[in-house]
Amino acid sequence: MTVDSTAARKPRRGSSKRAGAKTRAAAPGEPELVQLLTPEGERVEHPDYSIDLTAEELRGLYRDMVLTRRFDAEATTLQRQGELGLWASLLGQEAAQIGSGRATRADDYVFPTYREHGVAWCRGVDPTNLLGMFRGVNHGGWDPNENNFHLYTIVIGSQALHATGYAMGVAKDGADSAVIAYFGDGASSQGDVAEAFTFSAVYNAPVVFFCQNNQWAISEPTERQTRVPLYQRAQGYGFPGVRVDGNDVLAVLAVTKAALERARTGQGPMLIEAFTYRMGAHTTSDDPTKYRRDEERELWEAKDPILRLRTYLDREGLADEAFFAALETEADALAKRVRDAVRTMPDPDNMVIFENIYADGHALVDEERAQFAAYQASFAEESN
Amino acid sequence: MAAEKLSVVKAINASLRTALENDPKVLVMGEDVGKLGGVFRVTDGLQKDFGEDRVIDTPLAESGIVGTAIGLALRGYRPVVEIQFDGFVFPAYDQIVTQLAKMHARALGKIKLPVVIRIPYGGAIGAVEHHSESPEALFAHVAGLKVVSPSNASDAYWMLQQAIQSDDPVIYFEPKRRYHDKSELDRSAIPAPLHAARTVRQGTDLTLVAYGPMVKTCLEAAAAAEEEGKSLEVLDLRSMSPVDFDAIQASVERTGRLVVVHEAPVFLGTGAEIAARITERCFYHLEAPVLRVGGYHAPYPPSRLEDEYLPGLDRVLDAVDRALAY
Fold this sequence. Notes:
Chain A: Its cofactor is thiamine diphosphate. The complex is a heterodimer of chains A (384) and B (326). In chain A, helix 2 crosses helix 3 (94-101), helix 2 packs antiparallel against helix 13 (305-316) and helix 8 packs parallel to helix 9. In chain A, strand 8, helix 11 (249-264) and strand 9 (270-275) form a beta-alpha-beta unit. Chain A is globular. Chain A has a five-stranded parallel beta sheet, sandwiched between helices. In chain A, strands 1-2 form a two-stranded antiparallel sheet. Chain A has helices at residues 6-9, 55-80, 94-101, 117-123, 127-130, 132-135, 144-147, 158-173, 191-202, 233-237, 249-264, 294-301, 305-316, 321-343, 363-383, and strands at 2-3, 51-52, 109-111, 179-184, 207-213, 216-217, 220-221, 241-245, 270-275. Chain A is built from 15 helices and nine strands. The termini of chain A are far apart. In chain A, 47% of the residues are buried. The longest helix of chain A is centred in the first third of the chain and has 26 residues, at 55-80. In chain B, helix 1 packs parallel to helix 7. In chain B, the strands form three sheets. A seven-stranded mixed beta sheet of chain B has the order 3-2-4-5-7-6-12, sandwiched between helices. Chain B has 326 residues and is α/β, with parallel strands linked by helices. Chain B starts with a strand and ends with a helix. The model of chain B has no long low-confidence stretch (mean pLDDT 97).
């Protein structure tokens, strides 16, 4: 896989018409969008970002997206069946997450929101590990350092600062890894995101801010968060920003690779706005029919990230029927594994309430743990 | 090394210096902590000796300071951050409560957050609004945080050493009105455990519990009471989370009376918790209800009125008299 990363060092936002054949101009009145694969599955070039993938790599990205979508759909079903208390679906955002997740190196560090199931997949976090918090058996529970994938963060935008601090540490260590912070269009309004932009710029921290603009912050459209395209905010902080077609896995991969490489080589932070769409509800508790029209969703269905890669693979003859059939079987097996894991996931022991509150212990926790244990034990004595 | 006499400010400075020397992962960060040495000069000279990479002037953004400190801790550093004044900690309160305090538990203990947050606190320095507050109860209420406050130079040095060595987040409240009070520091001593209270004056008639700036006030009250033939015991609590209830209980079982003193508002303050717990533990030993002396349920007043708002010698003695009258 080769990615031209020189572009990100010298960001250009000139007309895409400068490039050779098959470049795509932005729609009138809309900012330019980096795109390498059109919604129709047509491969196009971009003057600043290019990518050259083998057939196997392309099939790999397709597989990642299909399995992620299948796992996500299974989780939604499990919530409907009462097995999960809540689920935040990534439906529609597979390309943004797989493209950026596959751009990271093992030694990079990822700070997700609570919707980055596709990125978790790329990092090697088992999907069943993500479900504990949604079932209510823990608040995260995986070891962040095992896959350099931090815990999901629910308070909107907080993790942008953690990523920045972590990146400051990477720079102090003289390491050449990079950090990527995920957040959404809603989080872009949070002070913590603004402060993360400031700190990262001031200290030239090796962090990439990956904003999935999925157009909706629960019920509020992006117009309620900003008067300028989000990627343009970076300019005010002194680092480059770029908008990428978030439903184009190739463009997301190319742009994120370039941004991470830029960070790794001491050129500081960069903001990527992945322009995408939340096809489902905010969470399983949400009802999008209250605030958005079906027509909008239908428009975005035509830009589906998986469909366009499928069209491309088919047209170019890069995958055969056996591949797709095997993938379907694999997806079903993954769904079954997830289903079985959730249904058999045990409730935590009562005493977990008092565990890991402090690393060095705390007298009050010890006292209350003992009181609680004695109270619980009193029922056992009564029943004897 | 023999004991030396130095101020609280110099003791904290010396403690930071020791920590920076002993552990390359220790960082000092905050607003104006570098060239200026902090608005109270607590970090004076540290950047000159340890460089801008370890003594870091930050942008003026408290949430950013604590949020990036969390990230640095996740990377293996031990940041000691300074919040310039008590009343400015609130932009960082979200990061402290929702992130710093909970992350160890959320990760099932797999990550540690050794972050120290230093906050100069309390009044009586004639400052403008937001520069004189005592928000310690707002932090002690949060599981996952430890909250301490030294009252003298020796504790200032040792408790900061212990806070930095702790793998838990510690909120370290500095009694700014006592910054220039001098006392003995023995750097070769073995310090008491960080969360243990200390009896700073023995007495038989009543126990006064205080911490930070109010310890000196209570010692003065005890001296004045002695002239009237009353024997007051004074406990320096030192830690507001966890609270050394055993030490208070042991004292109250002897004296039968307890008055808790802090600058923070009385309502739902540290004293309220102590009163409730000690009443439960010492019900049959108590000769009087536990009384509290502290700030009022009012915004911190303009400085011309702060002497009326803050507990002083007379208000402490008034509470002592009321407790003894039962």
